[in-house]
Automatic annotation (TrEMBL):
SUPFAM superfamilies: Periplasmic binding protein-like II, Winged helix' DNA-binding domain. Residues 1-23 have a biased composition (Basic and acidic residues). PANTHER family: HTH-TYPE TRANSCRIPTIONAL REGULATOR, HTH-TYPE TRANSCRIPTIONAL REGULATOR CYSL. InterPro entries: LysR_HTH_N, LysR_subst-bd, WH-like_DNA-bd_sf, WH_DNA-bd_sf. Belongs to the LysR transcriptional regulatory family. Residues 38-95 form the HTH lysR-type domain. This is LysR family transcriptional regulator. Residues 1-24, 312-333 are annotated as: Disordered. Pfam families: HTH_1 (PF00126), LysR_substrate (PF03466).
Amino acid sequence: MSSNGEHRGEWHEEQQAGGRRAEAYGSDVRAQLHHRVPDLGALELLLAVARHGSLGAAAREVGITQPAASSRIRSMERQLGVALVDRSPRGSRLTDAGALVTDWARRIVEAAEAFDAGAQALRGRRDSRLRVAASMTIAEYLLPGWLIALRAERPDTAVSLQAGNSAVVAERLLANEADMGFVEGLAVPDGLDGVVVAHDRLMIVAAPSHPWARRRGPLGLAELAATPLVLRERGSGTRQVLDAALADHGGLARPLLELASTTAVKAAAVSGAGPAVLSELAIAEELASRRLVAIPVEGVELRRDLRAVWPTGHRPTGPARDLLSLTRARPAG
């Protein structure tokens, strides 16, 4: 005698088999419909013949030649197995079967028009907003110009910008909380595709009062690695580049200060808190006014690529695509 577990297992297998049969049947029906039901263009042509009583006028309405229209009607008649149109020197009129098929065709075309209107509404809703996530340097020093240019092209698109480090940008994109992202790290984060849109260089800087500002030779990597610095937080593109550059020299010393924005790091360095690592995009004014001094470093150039990124397999569309085009047309760095 079978156990209850065996009965449940047999029932489960029967359910699965039934599901497979239903799926196969549905697939077969779809394949048959594809071959048996005329395409939308043919149905629109038939409706035009019904309106005009003329194959030539119907052909002009749908934008094809009269011979092409005749060929399409004949093909539809073969497909359905019935005559649809009687042709004569006085014009073209629907057969009884043609009149019935025309009634069905009208419903299909109206449904297709409703489908198209809905799709346009979805596109309009998508194109009415753009959610951008960007790491701090790009958000502060590059994106404003790009977004002003986008505004000129798409004045009706509302743009929201979320700033954070590169790791946070990746998280927001993967959680579908942003449509386009910009990061500053060494590589494209996992789960994302991307393209380089600009280049940047990190610089060691200090206030003029700091001893490094008065040194005559370049700074060595070992000394840089051993010195507590004012730094961005872990997960930022700046930290990624610096960690990689100093990995063979014992890594970074414990930070003097660890701050969450480029502006905060710059303010701390200007105040004399200690040397800092900053993007050259962020410090042009401070270097020109001598509020900060660039410290040469021997044996390394801290360059990095700035990238636009998006979830793997989901190439930007609508406003995101336009923004990407603008970044590549107006490079920086």
